[in-house]
Amino acid sequence: MEPPAPFPLIHTRDLAKVYRLGDNVIKALDGVSVDIARGEMTAVMGPSGSGKSTFMNLIGCLDLPSSGEYRLDGRDVAALTRDELATMRNRGIGFVFQNFNLLARTAAVENVELPLVYAGVPARERHTRAMEMLAKVGLGDRADHHPAQLSGGQQQRVAIARALVTQPLLILADEPTGALDSRTSLEIMALLQELNRGGMTVVLVTHEPEVARFAGRILRFRDGRVVQDESNHRPEDAAAILAAERKAA
Amino acid sequence: MTLFGLLRVAMRALAVSKLRSALTMLGIIIGVAAVIVMIAVGAGAQARVEEQIRSLGSNLLLILSGATTSGGVRMGFGSGQTLSEDDAAAISREIPETLAAPALRGTAQVIWGNQNWSTVIFGITPEYVEVRQWELAAGHMFDPTDIAGATKVCLIGQTVARQLFGGVDPVGQVIRVRRVPFTVIGVLEGKGQSMMGSDQDDLILMPITTARNRVLGASARAKQRSVGTIWVKVQEGHDMKAAEEQVRALLRQRHRLQPGADDDFSLRNLEEVAATQEASSRVLALLLAAVASVSLVVGGIGIMNIMLVSVTERTREIGLRMAVGARTRDILGQFLVEAVTLSLIGGLVGVLIGVGTAMGIAELAGWRIVLAPESVMLAVAFAFAIGVFFGFYPARKAARLNPVEALRFE
Ligand SMILES: Nc1ncnc2c1ncn2[C@@H]1O[C@H](COP(=O)(O)OP(=O)(O)OP(=O)(O)O)[C@@H](O)[C@H]1O
Ligand SMILES: [Mg+2]
Hints:
The complex is a heterodimer.
Chain A: E1 10-21, E2 24-32, E3 35-36, E4 41-45, H1 52-59, E5 67-72, E6 75-76, H2 82-92, E7 93-96, H3 108-119, H4 123-136, H5 152-164, E8 170-174, H6 182-197, E9 201-205, H7 209-212, E10 217-222, E11 225-231, H8 238-248
Parallel strand pairs in A: 4-9, 4-10, 7-8, 8-9
Antiparallel strand pairs in A: 1-2, 1-3, 1-5, 5-6, 10-11
Chain B: H1 3-16, H2 18-56, E1 60-65, E2 69-70, E3 73-74, E4 83-84, H3 85-94, E5 98-112, E6 115-124, H4 127-131, E7 136-139, H5 144-149, E8 153-156, H6 158-165, E9 174-177, E10 180-188, E11 203-207, H7 208-215, H8 218-222, E12 226-227, E13 229-234, H9 240-254, E14 265-269, H10 270-313, H11 315-323, H12 328-365, H13 373-399, H14 403-408
Parallel strand pairs in B: 6-11, 8-10
Antiparallel strand pairs in B: 1-13, 1-14, 2-3, 4-12, 5-6, 5-9, 5-13, 7-10, 8-11, 9-10
Bound molecules: adenosine-5'-triphosphate and magnesium ion.
């Protein structure tokens, strides 16, 4: 039976991840029950070691929980095989990493094409779609540049284009601005907000309140649990702040 | 991912550290080149042995006078002239499927004009050339009347013809053998080297009577009609072993040997000797190829080593590829293709170097080589298999990485 039509995109119940190191049992995630609807922009916050990345890895289908339930778009992820998880990541999820994770010595456009390669899209179509995405993140003129020839902010834009190219259900960003200065961070947040306004679900991890203020919802983690789930009905507009700063300068 | 796509990714990855890739290939290059050279040289040696066996004549027994052993002491062949022309005649007569040819052997200085050459003299009957399956390149064979009359005619081998006459036609010329003038009536076809490495074309054939009476001198004359060797040809389709025993029995009876006494001659089946030679040359060729393929395996281990290093170095890349949707077979394929690309490029370069070296050896050392396309294909296929075999473990290791840990790898 398919679940009823309006079900959340992300649905977790008592999600737990336990690591065993010898006699030590580390509960990286200790019973997390969260629903995230389509179109939400959620910031995940909390002290170091509180389980944010573990949570992101689980909802990103990179790892399987020790116990608990996780449904992505209604599908029970715990029941998937390794290769089915890979396909799920390929079709459903776009990842943005703190350290960009672009392939070295590889042109920006080819980096963006990579998920499409594994989706089996023909080369010509791959190229067209990758170029469109680069244009969308404002790097249409840098398609042939290698990562080493791009600034940090530009590299993160390439990574975002790569995350978008398969038209996924959601974008997961683990500290996407962690390696960027405040000005560039603002630019990246403006881009993510723009995508979110277009209907994209975004979950991002951040330590910085200046970044979290752009999200409509903030989940706070501590010791592997969600200790606070607060809605921000009037998130700030990164693009507007950016424009104001430009004017002031 | 398509094979072409994988190939592009592999070439790019290998191009990143060109020196390392080249050094890794070196093992395969050396291995493949060695296999090709060894097979070429081995096959060349084998071809030569086969040729020598053909040159010997088939279905031959060789009887040498004198015992191989006497009272436990090895005497060496030809110690004591115990065989005679009559023995040969008796063999031909009593054992119908055989043809026996006696031969008397000696050495002599031969002179033509101001040329001289030291060679081997064989005193023979006309049966000899038939038994040894020796064709004439020019002229004709002497006949029984020459034997009866001990005429001074001779046939010369190719080497003698070349040494004495150079380009001149020897037939009809008169040469001096130990000062005795002989008319050359024929030239033998070349047979090349024997299995023992001696030149089979360095000889003169003459009637056995002439050799005994006029050339080889008094010592031979002392024992009338005695000969050093008898060649026996057994007709096609008859059992060599049976013929050998019949000949042995006949000679023992003619020499009045008591049962239990040693033979006073030695009897050898040349086919067996040749077969042994051939077998050992084949074993040698196989051994050479086996030794060479060991270096291929060592090359394969080198590839495995580098691929393991490469997997470790690129752990994060693997994690990223997995995050964006690479399945187990995509990663497995990527690293397998990379390993096979290394081994195949190495293999092809190895083929070029191997073929070049083999031809160089043939040119410089004068060795016979046989370059078979199959051996080249075999070497390349072997290199391919090595790439798959030794590339599989690192590739599987990569494909089994945990994506989370791979992405976090420093
Ligand atoms: N593979 C692992 N083996 C053992 N323990 C692990 C493993 N991965 C994570 N942990 C532990 O799980 C807990 C949560 O880690 P996690 O990476 O989710 O924290 P985080 O909130 O992302 O921290 P940070 O803000 O520093 O990135 C930590 O105590 C960590 O040590
Ligand atoms: Mg983290």
